[in-house]
Amino acid sequence: MAVDVGNNCSQAQIKDDAGVSDLAWCLMDSLAAPLVAVNMDQKIFYLNQAAEGFLGNTFSSAVGKHWGEVIRLFHEDQPVDSVTQDDSVLPESLPKHGLWYLMQHDDGRMIPVRLSIAYTRRSPDVNPSGMSIVIHEVGAIKRAVDQLNHQSTHDGLTGIVNRREIEKRIERLLNKSKQSGQAHALLFLDLDGFKLINDAYGHQAGDEVLRQVVKLFNSIVRERDTVARYGGDEFMLLLEHCSMQDAVAAARMLRATLREYALSWQGREIEIDVSIGVVAVDYRYGDLASVITKADEACYRAKRSCRTKIFTVPPAGDL
């Protein structure tokens, strides 16, 4: 029997129609987590006291509404469409179990939540009479997970992408280059004289110089590009949709800007240079390891050059 949620139905009548025992109602009311029950028409026929407080809706204002009007969900900044062509098909219209969403509160706040959804039946051998939706606020958990994810992909000292993440991004561009033929480029950079800074002023000075260098790099590259710390005083710049000619021009500009930039430590001006290897991110070179090896070798060749400090490896088709 469907639960009647007509305008003239009282809370007591709705509970009677649902066929749920008084003990079950008491248990649901006492739950700390917000719980919303919907019938097979996807209309709310019950919400517990925690849900009233969390959603900012009273029992009387929520009952009879489509659940999507009360639980307004967003996923990746897009509203979750809770309505299907056939409103009786609950599993297709309800969000996936256990996924995280943003829920828009009545006051406009966006709250991270996770939903637990289950069919409700009067007995195991009958068809479902509706579904229960339990809302878990996961703001603190999500912040912790986001922080852990950030730590696993970013350098702790400079805040930029780390070796593990830049290698993933290079590999993605290699796959894209195979599909589209689009040109990309990788700059492998090694700071010249950095060890002398550590020896002369200490590691705190060296750390500060690295942070200043990264700030400079970030101010030069485009938003779509990636600046990464590969290790020690080695960096990578991944330039998307960039020809070798433009990559070499970017390397020259970057080196000139760094040499002119006034790096400082405790009032002392510090001069530093950089050697740069430039290589095309081209699937014809082979796999990720091959591209990185070529970039590393190009940087080594650049470091041995007393004049230009920039060495390029031509696109694979020109080799």
TrEMBL record:
One of its GO terms (molecular function) is catalytic activity. It comes from the Bacteria. CDD domains: GGDEF, PAS. Residues 27-77 form the PAS domain. It holds the Pfam family GGDEF. PROSITE patterns: GGDEF, PAS. Signal peptide: none annotated. InterPro entries: DGC-Regulatory_Protein (IPR052163), GGDEF_dom (IPR000160), Nucleotide_cyclase (IPR029787), PAS (IPR000014), PAS-like_dom_sf (IPR035965), Rev_trsase/Diguanyl_cyclase (IPR043128). Residues 182-315 form the GGDEF domain. This is GGDEF domain-containing protein.
